[in-house]
């Protein structure tokens, strides 16, 4: 009876561990800002009350800061909005950031940033802390720098939360205004730290359940040490 109680307890713990891990994984998500919608009254992107970005605004549609992404914790302080089939394969209604370089402050924990670029310049994506120190960066070197557009994706990730990100052309420091035009789309922000070394919930569950069976077998063997000899 005692062994059965121990086994049941371990089984309950397994279910609890898997539940907690799954809950954490669900909240370890990302925020995608494709500039096609902004948060509605509920302050969440990807819900029914999202506000579509006007598609007939022409080349210049205002600043990124006017789109209301601060509701999801992203306060754009640089970057202008444009619309048109500029990015390869995009529609005439596609929105993207252009003219001045885009940057933003975060009011939520952000551990990674990814952006798509279609520009003629070599670019660096910076992740900064609250003191404006560079925490992490990623540079794309355009083989035809200054002459031909290149489509690329820049990505950064950090084990500590970032306070801000910015994109700069190579040679332009983060403290100065850059005169080169860059074109950026599809901002993806990771809201959880890198957990590549942490087992998946299913793996945790199997490991815990396996331990429970092992303990149960060891206890049973200790209780009846002559069982093996009788079988011979």
Write structural notes for this entry:
By secondary structure, this protein is an alpha+beta fold. The protein folds into 2 domains: 2-24 and 197-231; 29-190, Jelly Rolls (Sandwich). Helices cover 23% and strands 36% of the residues. Strand 6 and strand 7 form a beta hairpin. Helix 1 (2-27) packs antiparallel against helix 2. The protein is globular and about 40 Å long. It starts with a helix and ends with a helix. Mean pLDDT is 81; it is low at 10-28.
Write a brief caption for the model.
This protein has helices at residues 2-27, 201-223, 227-231; strands spanning 30-33, 37-38, 51-52, 74-83, 95-119, 123-128, 134-140, 150-169, 184-190.
Q: Layout of SSEs?
A:
Layout: H1 2-27, E1 30-33, E2 37-38, E3 51-52, E4 74-83, E5 95-119, E6 123-128, E7 134-140, E8 150-169, E9 184-190, H2 201-223, H3 227-231
């Amino acid at each position: 009876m005692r062994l059965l109680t121990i086994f049941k307890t371990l089984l309950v713990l397994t279910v609890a561990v898997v539940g907690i891990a799954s809950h954490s994984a669900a909240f370890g998500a990302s925020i995608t800002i494709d500039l096609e919608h902004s948060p509605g009254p509920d302050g969440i992107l990807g819900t029914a009350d999202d506000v579509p970005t006007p598609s007939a605004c022409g080349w210049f549609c205002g600043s990124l800061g006017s789109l209301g992404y601060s509701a999801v914790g992203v306060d754009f302080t640089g970057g202008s909005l444009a619309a048109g089939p500029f990015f390869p394969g995009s529609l005439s209604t596609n929105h993207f950031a252009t003219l001045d370089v885009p940057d933003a402050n975060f009011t939520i924990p952000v551990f990674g940033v990814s952006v798509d670029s279609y520009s003629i310049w070599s670019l660096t994506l910076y992740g900064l802390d609250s003191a404006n120190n560079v925490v992490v960066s990623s540079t794309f070197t355009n083989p035809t720098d200054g002459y031909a557009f290149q489509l690329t994706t820049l990505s950064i990730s950090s084990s500590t939360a970032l306070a801000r990100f910015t994109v700069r052309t190579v040679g332009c420091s983060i403290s100065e205004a850059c005169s080169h035009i860059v074109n950026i789309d599809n901002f993806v922000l990771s809201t959880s730290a890198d957990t590549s070394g942490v087992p998946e919930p299913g793996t945790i569950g199997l490991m815990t359940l396996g331990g429970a069976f092992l303990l149960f077998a060891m206890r049973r063997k200790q209780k009846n040490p002559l069982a093996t000899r009788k079988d011979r």
